[in-house]
Structure formats: structure tokens, C-alpha cells
Amino acid sequence: MAESLKTFFDPILVRRIATQLRAVHSEFPERRFVAEASEGLDALELMDRARHIMRAMHRALPKDFEHAARILQDSLGPTMERTEGHGMSVFLYLPHVLYVAEHGLAHFEPAMRLQHALTQRFTAEFCIRPYLERYPRETLARLREWAGDANVHVRRLVSEGTRPRLPWAPRLRAFQEDPQPVLELLELLKDDPELYVRRSVANNLNDIGKDHPVLLVDTCERWSKGASPERQWIIRHALRSAVKRGDPRALALMGFEGPAALEVTATFHPSRVRLGQSVQVRLQVTNTSRERQKALVDLAVHFVKANGASRPKVFKVSTVDLVPGASSTLEKTVSLAALTTRQHYPGAHRVDALVNGAAIPVGAFDVS
């Protein structure tokens, strides 16, 4: 996590939470909570800081969850007016979310009320998941109600909280095996007026497609009939991983059907790079046929692993629409900087151009 993310949870924030809780609950032990929640905070990472504050909050609040939940809900600030641009401020409520996830599971109704309130100020996508696992029928029924909620953040929770592969969260294994209950919710949201919700719907479908690629394309085909431009955007975004995999049906839905008669060559600048640097890949795409060619062109870089083997990573590049004899130059910068999700190693990195999903070897660059 970025340092600024981690240090957001500091003693100043702890005192702010204490002030909010004391304002609605005169018996809240403010000094004790601040001391306990602040002790040892600097040595912890982001999520551990939030959990540390949550545990101190739990010790300070009444033991009865329903009473504690009312206090927490009464202490919340105003709801979010916008869907973007809140920065770190909304992370104030991450300890509250963790509290519901850990301590509310035996108290379904008060926990649902608190999550409905929290998601309008931060997000309840993480704390709704334990309830989907313990109370799948009841929680899905509540989410079906919330799919028609007037608040955009509540509607987004319906799609975001049910993502089988939500980042930063444990996977919902039951929905990985059988995503039909999730698809029924997405059907209610596929024409939502807010892009904020539609983007979440697309990301959920993309998750489903990683485990059920045929079901993903079947769903997108069905949704494409009479689709508005907004729903067409969902379909394109939902199919992005399938397109990267070269799924022919997904490519056809995107308008890129069958092989394209294109010649592709590549140059690398520089052709030899050091770890931590970057290389610019320039593709020259030429239509060598007698017919117009429309194609999706991506780039697959075979990154060398620690054991000397390689594994491709696909980068989105562009689309081309070329008349006979025409050419187009496409460029992509590939970074060799160390990432938390990918380490780099020396060796020859093979590169393929992916034209409508078909791999065309175009050379390699060396990393030292």
C-alpha cells in the first residue's frame, strides 16, 4: 500500500472517531479508546491499523451489538453526494466496516441496517460478503431490494459486494461455482442510470467470465439484443479479459471476427534494457490483402520468471481499420520497474502481437 494510505490511520483520526462516538453516546470511554487505539499504531500496515482501531472500538462500545450498531450509525457523517473524487476521507469508516464483518454476524437485521448506512458514506462491499456466506438466501433477498434503492451507492453495493473475485477480499467460492444468483442481481442493474453502477456490473461480469467463460459470452450476447449505448459499454468492459484471452465469440461480439490479413513488424527502443527501465514497442501494421481489414491489436510480453521460464502478460494497444495497402503505427511502453504484483528478471523477453486473438511473433528485447 502507498505510504499515504497507511498513515491516514493515525492518532488524529483515532481522536476524530472518538469525538464522533462520544457526541452520540455520552458514556463512551473516549480517553481509554484513544489510548488503546493509538498504542502501537505506527508499526502496523494499512489493514492492520484499521483492525487495531476496530478492536479498540469493540472494547469501548456496549457489548450488545444492536445497541453498538445504533451508536455507530448515529455517529456517521453526511452521505456521499458524488460517486468519485473522495480521496482518502471516506476510509474513516473502514474500522466500522470491519466491526460489522466481525461482530455483527449473529445479528442480521441491525447489521444490514448499519451496512446500508455505511455504504452511503464509504462502502460495505467487504463486510457484506460474510453475510452472503452465512445467510445466502436472506442476504440475496435484501440485495434484490437494494437494487432498486434511490441511493447510487446502495445499488453499487449490490453488484460490487457480490463480485466472486473482488480485489482485497476473500473470494466468494459458492458464486464462483454457481454465479446464477449473482447474474439475477446484475439483470436488475444492467440499465442503471449511473455509470458508477454500470462499471461495477461490468467488473462483476468480468469476474464471472474468468470461471465461466461460456456463460459470460452467452450473457453478453443476450444483453446485446436491443442494447442501449450504455449497456453496450458494459458488454465491452465485461469482455475485456475474454478478449485478451483471444476468445473468438467475445471478439466477434466486439466486431472483430475471424483472422485478419495483416502483416505486423516490431521495433524495440532500446532493444536492451536494465531492470527498472522501460522499453517502447512500436508495431507497424500493414494490410496486405485486397479487402478492408478491421482488427483488434494487443501485445503479449513473455516476462521471464525466477526459474527461467516465461509467462505472457497481455497489454491493450489499439484497433485498426485499414484499406488495402494501408499501414498504421502503434506504440506501447512496457515498464520493467519492480511492482508489488510482478517482479522482473533478466533474459530475453519474447513479444507477440495479438491480432484478433491470433498470436504473431514479432521479436524480443533483452533485460539485464
TrEMBL record:
InterPro entries: ARM-type_fold (IPR016024), DNA_alkylation (IPR014825), Ig-like_fold (IPR013783). It comes from the Bacteria. This is DNA alkylation repair protein. It comes from Archangium minus.
